[in-house]
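Supplementary Methods S3. Complex input for the adenosine-5'-triphosphate-bound model.
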Amino acid sequence: MKIVALFSVKGGVGKSTLSACLAHVAATQSGRRTLLWDLDPQGASGWLLGVEPKAGAKARKSLAAASLADLIQPSIWPNLDVLAADRSLRRLEADLAGEDSEKRLKRALKPLEDRYDRVILDCPPGLTELADQMFRAADLIVVPAVPSPLSGRAVAQLRAHLADEMKSPPPLLPVYSMVDRRKSIHKAALDDQPDWPVIPYASAMEAMAATRKPVAAGPAARAVNGLWAAVERQLLG
Ligand SMILES: Nc1ncnc2c1ncn2[C@@H]1O[C@H](COP(=O)(O)OP(=O)(O)OP(=O)(O)O)[C@@H](O)[C@H]1O
Ligand SMILES: [Mg+2]
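Predicted complex, serialized as structure tokens:
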């Protein structure tokens, strides 16, 4: 079981949208038994895959008891399950701050090892306690960034933070998100980091919030497939 986290210090950069898309591609195209775990109380990525939290679900308590399995629900796609976010996650930050183990999240995922090949974590923005836990659980961190002269710097800062905090930090896979090649600032940023995968700005991606289905065709879907291929290369390489 490999764990891929979508993370960024910044909000609104496409983490939840890409979490839903990548989980969908992992399950339907790569045939991986996949779990999307929505760790953000906003609950966007679960919503995008058409799944609501179970009535009375308290992911915060289940995480503490490492009994997440009860909260997992199937999606309408084969091989794709969802652990939706519920309101209890609002208090998770406070729990984790008082916690002595840095690996609670990692421990909570352990019992799912035989059940899934890929776990996609959709994280709330910010360098929070939860982020530190997620860094310790993840095999790879996908970092979406809207193209800007600051994007490279932000990723370098995150890399430095991880190197300071951890003996063997997980690798980062930065990805340009919401790219509009007509904008000179976007073009310049892409020239700066030609190796980063690119997800275009696409109304089809925005429309996912209405259709509650990941993009399935067109340039945005092809870009997501390319990003997933890069993720798999990193995981297997
Ligand atoms: N490639 C894209 N093209 C067009 N719109 C996009 C794209 N990716 C995301 N969006 C839109 O941008 C907004 C923010 O995206 P999303 O919620 O995925 O970001 P996020 O990083 O998860 O935000 P938060 O930090 O609040 O969790 C949403 O309205 C989404 O529909
Ligand atoms: Mg989000």
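Strands lie at 2-6, 34-38, 73-74, 80-83, 118-122, 140-145, 172-179, 198-200. The chain has a mean pLDDT of 95.
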